[in-house]
Structures are given as C-alpha cells and as structure tokens.
Specification:
alpha/beta; globular; 8 helices; Rossmann fold; about 180 residues
Length: about 180
C-alpha cells in the first residue's frame, strides 16, 4: 500500500483512521476537507480543487482521507488501495453526535487557517447541519460504495471493506507499505 484513499459516510471516522494509517505506514496524510474548505465555509470549485490535489496525488505515497465523489475518476487514477469504513448506522450516528457536540463545545478551528468552527446552532439547528447531512446521506453513500466494491474502478486497485472497529484495528496492526 502506497496510495490509499479512505472513504465512508460522514461520521465514520475517516480522518482519525487515515491519520493513524499514514503514521503506521510512515507516509503523508492528505485530508481532502482541509483542502476543499475555505474561510467562512466557502469551498473550492471542482476545477480548482483538482488542481490543488493533482501535485499531492502525483507523489509516491500517501493516505487520502475523503469522499468528494466528484473527484473519484480523477483520484482513483492514482490509488492502489481503497479502504471503505462501512460501520453500521447507529455506530456512525453516535460517532457523528459525539464529534458534533465536542466540536461545538470546544469551538476549535477545524482546518487550520480557515477560521471554520462548528457551533451547536450550525450542527443541530441549521440546514448546514453535518448531523442532518449524515442522516440524509448515510444510506445513499452505503449503496453507492457497495456498488463500487462489487465492480472496482480498476482491477489493480485493492478494495478493503472494514465493518467494525475491531477490523479497523486489525487492519492497522497488519498494515505494511510496499
């Protein structure tokens, strides 16, 4: 594994898992949301987003954390492994709630230099709620990735589906780079 994309629904733990995997493999960790989101919750347009990602993905090794489905055909030209964190609905929902409360309470900037912070109002009482996003998209995302894994984007790409924290820990413990 030299070029890994970790995917999953919002709240599945992609960032934490990806960071740990990159550390274990001793390779760069790339968080797509940190690139995508600009100050004041604005975001890069697709063309600009891909322009920033391209030189990062052309490097020899990395762990890329994130979905951003519009970039799939682009980013999967580079990957050798796709890891899908496919936890059950209630686990994912609980993780999302805990994360949302912690972020709202701490008011810490999420991605350095953006000033973007979560609040109770934004997380629970807004149309921009990440909790609502997860509830609205969980089953669609699950269905989309099940279809992807039944027909991978290329035969040389290894697809790994992780369905429990125990499997995630085993994967991390046994992960080796090439």
């Amino acid at each position: 594994m030299k070029r890994v994309n970790v995917i999953g629904t919002s709240g599945s733990g992609k960032s934490q898992f990806s960071s740990r995997l990159a550390k274990k493999l001793d390779i760069q960790y790339i968080e797509m949301d940190a690139i995508f989101w600009l100050p004041n919750w604005q975001h890069l347009e697709l063309e600009d987003f891909i322009a920033v990602l391209k030189p990062l993905l052309e490097q020899d090794s990395w762990v890329l954390d994130g979905n951003q489905s519009k970039t799939n055909s682009f980013k999967w030209q580079y990957v050798d492994t796709i890891v899908w964190l496919d936890y059950g609905f209630f686990r994912t929902f609980r993780q999302m709630l805990v994360r949302s409360v912690k972020r709202a309470y701490s008011k810490q900037e999420i991605w350095q230099g953006t000033g973007n912070k979560e609040s109770f109002r934004r997380n629970f009482f807004s149309s921009d709620s990440v909790v609502l996003w997860m509830l609205h998209n969980y089953w669609k995302t699950k269905k989309k990735y099940a279809k992807l894994f039944s027909n991978p984007p290329a035969p040389e790409i290894k697809c790994v589906r992780i369905t429990s924290p125990k499997q995630a820990e085993e994967f991390l413990a046994n992960a080796v780079g090439i």
